[in-house]
Amino acid sequence: MSLPTEPTSKRQLPGITPGARLMDRTGQWIITAGGIGVILSVLGIFLFVLMESYPLFLKPSASRAHTFDFSHRQPVLCTGVDPYQAVMFVVHEAGIDFVDMTTKSVTKSVSIPELQGRRIRAAYRALDNTHVGLGLDDGTMLGCRVNFAVDYDAEGKQIVTPSFSVESSMDLTDEALVHLVFRHDGKSRGTVLGIADSGQLVLGISERQRGLLGDGKTTVRTYDLTDEIKGRARVGAVAKSGRYVLVGTDRGEVFRWEIGRASSNPRLLDYFRVSDQEVSALDFVLGDVSLVVGDVGGRVSVWMPVRTSEGDNKRVFKRIHTLQSHPAAVTALASSARDKQFLSGDVSGMVALHHMTSEQTFFQLPGDRPIQSLSFAPKANGFLTVSKSGQVTDFGLYNPHPEVTLQTLFGKVWYEGYTEPQYVWQSTGGSDDFEPKLSIVPLIFGTFKGTLYAMLFALPLAVLAAIYTSEFASPNVRGVVKPVVELMASLPSVILGFLAGLWLAPLLETRIVGALLLLPCVPIVVVICAWGWGQMSEDFARRIPDHWILTLLAGIALFSLYLSFALGPLAESLLFGGNFQSWLLGTTGTRYDQRNCLVVGFAMGFAVVPIIYTICEDALSSVPQHLRAGSLALGATPWQTAIRVVLPTASPGIFSATMIGFGRAVGETMIVLMATGNTPILDWTIFNGMRTMSANIAVEIPEAPHEGTLYRVLFLTGVLLAAITFLVNTLAEVVRQRLREKYSRI
Question: Closest Cα partner for 295 from 361, 362, 344?
C-alpha cells in the first residue's frame, strides 16, 4: 500500500530553477511597476493640464491698500499712477502732486506757471495715462503731459522719476469749465470737449502741421455746439482719433458728431435715447467703439454702433450689454487700457468692476463717500478711487482673465463690429486694442467635422476590406493584402499631411468634378464587373489563379478612377457651365477652398483605415468556424453567411475598431494642420476647411504668453479633447460589452 503523495507546488515543479523563479518574479515586478508608472504618468499629465486651465475660473478680488487724505487739496479732480504703481499723481485746483506709493508721502508738488493765478475746475486723464487736460476757471484748457522715467540704481533697485509739462493751450469760452474731456492721438492732433458752468458746450481742436525743418504751425479751432443739442449737456466722450465726439444730456439722450480734418466743421450724425433719466457718466471702452453709459438711476449699459443691414455702411448705436445697476446715481466711469473692463462709481460711494463683452459684474465695493473720479492702473492690476471729500484710495486688483466665462467659451457673444452674437475664435489681431475672441465651439465643431468626413471615407472601406479578406479572399491574397494595409499605419501623419496639402489639394482643385464622379462611377463599374463575373462559367472562373484576382480588383479600381477623371471635364461643361467653382459660389454662395474637408477626408482616412481594418479583420477571423459551417450547411450563400452570421457575431470587435478609429481621427494634428485652411468656421460644407482642437493647440501654443488667457484656454481645450476621448472610449466599452453578451450565447 503506497502512501498518498502531496500535490506538487509551483515552486517544486521540476525544471524550474531558483534563478528562473527570480527572473519570473523580477519580470512580474517590472511589468507591474511599468503599468502603474504609465497610469500615474497619464494621470499626472491630465492633472497638470487641468491645473493650468483651472485659474481661468477663479473669482477676481480687490484689496484696499491705502487711503490718502487730500481734503486740504480738495477738490481732487483726477488721479493716475505709473505702470509699476510706484508713483501716483493727484490733480487738484492748485496744481499737481506726486506721491510715493511706498512711503505714502508727497515727494513733489508742481506749481504750474501757466495757471497765472487761475484755478483748475476740471481735469481729465486720457486712457494712455500720459495726456492730461486741465479746465480753468476762465474757460482755458491746458493740454499737459505726465511722464514716468524708469531707471535702476547700482543695487538694481527700481527708481521711477515723474515729470510734468504743459504742451498746449486753448481758449474755449469765457466761463469756468466744469466738465472736460481731452484726447490726443499721439501724433499731432488734440481734441477737447468742455462744458461750461452755464451749460455751454464747446469743442476745441488743435492740429500741428509738420514742416520741412521741424514742427510746423499749430492751428486751433473752436466750436460752440450748444444750440445743436436738445436739453443741457452733462457729460461727454471723445474718441482718441478725435473723429467722434459724444455728449450726454439731462434728457437721457446722447448726441454724436463727426469731426473731419482741415477746416471742416463738426457734423451732427445722429442722436439716440439711452435712458429715461439724466445721463450722468459717459466713457469709451478700450478701442473707442463701444460706449458705456451711466444715469442718475444707477443703470449701467454698453452701446455699440451696429450696421442697419448687411452691405450697408450706415451704423446706429444699439444697447448691446446691460450690467448690474448701482443703488444710486452713477457719477464716474473709468476704462482699462488693457482689456474691456471698466469701473463705475456712484454717489453712495459704491465702486463696481465690470467686463463689457462677457456682461459680468465682478464685484461691488460699498463706500461711505460720493465718488468723484476713478482711474485704472496701466496694467489693470489696481485702481484708484477719489471721493468728493478728497479721499484717494488705492486698491490692488487680481483679475487676470476677465474675458473668460462659460458663456464666452461655449455661447454666442456679440463682439464689436458684428451684426449679431456669434461663435468666434480669433485669438490675435493687428492692434493693441484688439479683443481676443475665444469661443471653443468652432474648434469643437471643426474637430467633429473633420472626423466625420474622415470616417465617411475610412469606415466603409476598412470594414468591407476586412470582410473580403476574412471571408472571401484566398489565404495567399489575404497574406499579401493584410500586411500591406497594416504597413500603411507606419506612415507618419506629417508625411500624409504634407502630401495632402502640397500635392493632393492642388490636384483636386483642378479635377474636383472628376473626384466627385468617383462616388457614382466606382459602384457602377463594380456592379457591372460583378454581373460580368456572374455570367462566366464556373470552369472558366476556377481556372483563374488566386493571385490574379487581386490584380483584377486593382485593375477595376484603376479603371473606375480613370473613367471618373476622364468624364470630369465633360460633366463640368454640361452641368456646371464649364467652371464648377464659379457655379458653386454663384448658386450656393459657398467658396471653394483649395484645402478643404475633401482633402482631409482622403488624407486622414488613409491614416485611419489601417487601424479599423486590422481590428475588424481580427474580429471577423475570430468568429468560430462552426458558425460558418452551420450556416453554409443550411443552404446559406457565403455572402449571406458573412452578413447575417459572421458580421453580427464580430460586431463588438467592429464597434471597438470604429471607436478607436474615431479617437484616432479626433486627436489627429498634423494632417488637419497641413491639409486644411485652418480657419475656425461653422460650416458643414465639404468644400471649405475647419480648425480642430488639436491643430489649434499646435498653432497657437508657441505664441501664447505664458500663463496668459490664451495659454490657459489652450490647456482647457486639451482638457476637453481628453474628456471627449475618454467619453468615446467609455461609451465604446459599454456598447462592446453589451454586444458581446448578446452574441456570446450563439
Answer: 344
Residue in this structure with the C-alpha cell 499721439, named with its chain if needed: 186
Task: Report residue 456 as a C-alpha cell.
Answer: 465617411
| Full-model pTM | 0.85
First vs last C-alpha separation in the chain: 50
Residue 12: pLDDT band with limits 50, 70, 90 = low
Helices and strands in the chain: count of H runs, count of E runs: 18, 30
Range 372-382 average pLDDT: 91
Rounded-to-integer distance, Cα 613 and Cα 322, Å? 56
Render pLDDT for 385-433 as a digit per residue (tens, 0 to 9).
999 888 899 999 999 999 999 999 999 999 988 888 999 998 887 676 7
Q: What share of the chain is helix, strand, coil (3-state, %, to 5)?
A: 40, 30, 30
Q: Hey, which bits of 117-186 come out as E strands? A: 120-125, 131-136, 140-152, 158-171, 177-184
Residues 25-50 pLDDT 10s? 888 899 999 999 999 998 999 899 99
Domain 439-689 coded CATH 1.50.10: no
**Which H helix or E strand runs over 193?**
strand 189-196
Is omega for the bond preceding 648 within 30 degrees of 0, making it cis?
no
Distance, in Å, from the CA atom of 264 to the CA atom of 207, rounded to the nearest integer, reads 13
Q: Does the CA dihedral 643-644-645-647 come out positive or negative? A: positive
Is 87 in contact with 162 (CB distance < 8 Å)? Answer: yes
Alpha-carbon span 81 to 125, nearest angstrom: 11
DSSP state of 198: T
Q: Indicate the domain borders of the chain.
A: 439-689, 700-745
